[in-house]
Amino acid sequence: MDGYSFLWLIVTAGGAALLGAGFVYGIMRNRHRTVGEKRAGEIGSHEVYEAENRRSHGN
Predict the structure, then answer these.
(1) How far apart are CA 23 and CA 17, in angstroms?
(2) Among candidates 11, 29, 10, 33, which has minimal Cα distance to 21?
(3) pTM of the model
(4) Residues 14-50: pLDDT tens digits?
């Protein structure tokens, strides 16, 4: 039974490591944005906050 427990530990730890590696890869791949993309994101978030502010304050 010890061999089975060790195998299960390796499979579980390996799966978690692969999942973590996939997350890191995805984050690193999408991390770098151009200046235009950053600016568009800032403008979009500003517009969303302004609309929410107008809606909540009735302006």
Answers:
(1) 10
(2) 29
(3) 0.49
(4) 999 999 999 999 988 887 888 998 899 999 999 999 9
